[in-house]
Design a protein that fits this description.
heterodimer; A: mainly beta; 7-stranded mixed β-sheet; 4-stranded antiparallel β-sheet; 11 strands; about 50% strand; B: mainly beta; 6-stranded mixed β-sheet; about 0% helix
């Protein structure tokens, strides 16, 4: 079974530039999550989708971050304009709607460096 | 305010001995707890979980203990192996894993485990 795919793996941009990340979840997983992991911290949820609807985006900085999951499968996360403090690893995860162990499956992440 | 705390940034143990990783939480509404393992340049992978109705869950060399009154859980790895060297994250959720809505996971900062041969 293929895992969660993310691209690019690494990205370096200057502040005030724009960047987009892509995620393809595991086939059949209706729920998709985007996390931000700053160095030395645990992952922090940015947004959760169920199919193509947003379940929770309370921690998404909506003035600069946006995300979409148009067809209920893959998703993109965009930052515009980027700030230095956005430097982090952006993780995508997916899960079944009813997961007995509440397990989320994570992709390898995209490491963003903002200079 | 951190709701899930892993107060030991790092832990070093000898191969074959027991590794004990600790986690404390503050939110009494948390109902489900998970441990994830993360290798460098990879995403976290699920290791083991426990519901608040249990006090222990075992899976091979990995056992998670939950003390609800103390709001504390621990992960025991016995025996420890060099391949267990990774960062271990404790995570908690306040929504049970059933029903129509997936709750959110709150992660601790992680503990880096080094198992020396």
């Amino acid at each position: 079974e293929a895992g969660v795919a993310q691209s690019p793996r690494y990205k370096i941009i200057e502040k005030r530039q724009s960047v987009a990340f892509w995620c393809n979840p595991i086939s059949g997983h209706a729920t998709l999550y985007w996390y931000q992991q700053i160095l030395g911290q645990g992952p922090k949820l940015l947004i959760q989708f169920q199919n193509n609807g947003v379940v929770d985006d309370s921690q998404l900085p909506k003035d600069r971050f946006s995300a979409e999951r148009l067809k209920g499968v893959d998703s993109t996360l965009k930052i515009q304009p980027a700030k230095l403090e956005d430097s982090a690893v952006y993780l995508c995860a997916s899960s079944f709607i009813r997961q007995p162990t509440y397990e989320q499956y994570f992709g390898p992440g995209t490491r963003l460096t903002v200079t | 305010d951190q709701q899930v705390k892993q107060n030991s940034p790092s832990l070093s143990v000898q191969e074959g001995r027991i590794s004990i990783l600790n986690c404390d939480y503050t939110n009494s509404m948390f109902d489900y707890f998970l441990w994830y393992k993360k290798y460098p340049a990879e995403g976290p992978t699920f290791l083991i979980s426990i519901s608040s109705i249990k006090d222990k869950n075992e899976d091979g060399r990995f056992t998670v203990f939950l003390n609800k009154s103390a709001k504390h859980l621990s992960l025991h790895i016995v025996p420890s192996q060099p391949g267990d060297s990774a960062v271990y994250f404790c995570a908690a959720s306040d929504i049970p894993p059933y029903g129509g809505s997936q709750g959110n996971l709150i992660f601790g900062k992680g503990t880096k485990l080094s198992v020396k041969p």
